[in-house]
Every structure is written in structure tokens, then in C-alpha cells.
Specification:
Rossmann fold, binds S-adenosylmethionine, alpha/beta, about 30% helix, seven-stranded mixed β-sheet, two-stranded antiparallel sheet, globular, 7 helices
Length: about 230
């Protein structure tokens, strides 16, 4: 897609998630595999100071805080952040979280973190912005820092308004209102190779269902001199 069509699409994607916040947990994908991701994240043990990108309604924030000293959680939807804030407050974890309202296609971290985490976000980053997004991750990661992400490649046939080859989809809310969004259907090996091109070394593991998770960091050749 030409970049001039991308800005309105990315803005519409934020509008979709702002409107979807109150019904977000109704629409989560009910497939096997999520428990594998949860177990993988616990085994990864995101300790230290963690940067969570596109935190949404705090789906993963409490679990991150089971391991982390602090979490900085960023999202562009204030409605999502309000729900996330309540979730961590209910668990008495709020004093260890900083929420940041920001557009990840503009925002840059003001410090580095031990771990960068993002759940169900990478598939919403258009390939045209893939390199910029991973530059953000690089800017936010300590030397030797670790990254964990989870996502899915699941797209309903009626979402594919521009055909299967396009990453522009249409999603509907419970009231039927429609929004365009980005959904890149990454596959594990393809994604590992794409990340390697950008200087990252990841293992991407598909689950039993439509999900996958990835762990990794800067490639060995870059580690000595990182951050660049
Ligand atoms: C699929 S949800 C994932 C939420 C949560 N991480 C999870 O796993 O349930 C995608 C999130 O990305 C956020 N988002 C969309 N566009 C964004 C942008 N440009 N900058 C920051 N967050 C954005 C949405 O508000 C939404 O909370």
C-alpha cells in the first residue's frame, strides 16, 4: 500500500480499538493454544523492568507483574488504558505500573528496559512499518535485553475486504459498526527470517491453535556493539 493510504488506516485501527475496549474481552479468540502462550511467558519469566507495547485492557499486564519489578505499558486507546488501570489496581499491582497513552508509530521510549513484551500487536503493524517498529524495540531494549511476543494469524473470510493477499481487513463491533484494521498473517518461519534481516534472532513457535509466540533478542553479531 502507498504510504499515503496508511495513515488513515492506522488512525481507523485506533478508532476501532477505542470503540472496542468495553467489549474487548467478549471477542477474544476461543481456540486452543492460549494456555501454551501463558506457560511460555511464565517460563520466559519477564523479570526486571518491562516495556509492554499495545497493552490494551491489561490482558497480560498482571501476568507480567507476577515476574517484573515494574511495567511501563503503552497503548493509543485511553479506553483500553482505563480498563488496564482497574485490572492492576484490583490486584494491588498499580504502584509498579506506569501507563503511557501514545501512538506506537510516533512514540519513542525515554529509557531502556530488560524486557520488551507485546501481545497480539505485531500482526497489526503493517509491513511498511515493520522496520520502524523494530527500531522502536531496539531503542527500548537494554544491551542483552530480551523480547517476548505472542500473536495469531487468524482472519475470518468475511474480514478480507481486499482479498487474502492484502493485510487490510474489516472488523465489526457488536453493534455492527465496521472499521478497517491491519492484520498481517505472519507464519513462524517467515517471521523468523524477516526478523533476521533486521538484525534480530528469534525462535517463533506455533501453538496447537492459530497462535504463535516468539522469544529472542538482538542477533549475536549486533550484541557486542548494541545498542547502536
Ligand atoms: C489486539 S489488541 C492487543 C491488546 C493486548 N496486548 C492483548 O494481547 O489483548 C491491539 C491493541 O493495540 C492498540 N493500538 C492500536 N493501534 C495503536 C497505535 N498506533 N499505538 C499504540 N497502540 C495501538 C489498541 O488500542 C489495542 O489495545
Amino acid at each position: 500500500m502507498a504510504d499515503d493510504g496508511l495513515e488513515p488506516l492506522l488512525a481507523e485501527q485506533v478508532s476501532y480499538y477505542r470503540a472496542r475496549a468495553p467489549e474487548y474481552f467478549d471477542g477474544t479468540l476461543d481456540f486452543p493454544g492460549m494456555d501454551e502462550i501463558e506457560a511460555a511467558l511464565d517460563a520466559f519469566a519477564p523479570a526486571g523492568d518491562v516495556l509492554e507495547l499495545a497493552c490494551g485492557p491489561g490482558t497480560w499486564t498482571p501476568r507480567l507483574l507476577d515476574h517484573a519489578a515494574t511495567v511501563t505499558a503503552v497503548d493509543a486507546a485511553p479506553e483500553m488504558l482505563a480498563i488496564a488501570r482497574d485490572r492492576v489496581r484490583d490486584r494491588g499491582q498499580d504502584h509498579r505500573v506506569r501507563f503511557v497513552l501514545a501512538d506506537l508509530f510516533e512514540w519513542r521510549p525515554d529509557r531502556r528496559y530488560d524486557v520488551v513484551f507485546f501481545g497480539f500487536w505485531l500482526s497489526h503493524v503493517p509491513l511498511e512499518r515493520f522496520a520502524d517498529f523494530w527500531k522502536l524495540v531496539d531503542d527500548g531494549l537494554e544491551p542483552g535485553g530480551r523480547v517476548f511476543f505472542a500473536d495469531d494469524a487468524y482472519r475470518e473470510p468475511d474480514e478480507l475486504i481486499e482479498g487474502e493477499a492484502s493485510s487490510t481487513i474489516r472488523r465489526r463491533l457488536n453493534d455492527g459498526s465496521a472499521y478497517r484494521a491491519v492484520k498481517v498473517p505472519h507464519q513462524a518461519l517467515e517471521l523468523e527470517a524477516r526478523l533476521a534481516v533486521h538484525g534480530w534472532e528469534f525462535t517463533v513457535t506455533p501453538t496447537e491453535g492459530p497462535f504463535y509466540w516468539g522469544t529472542g533478542g538482538r542477533a549475536a553479531t549486533r550484541r557486542a556493539g548494541s545498542p547502536s
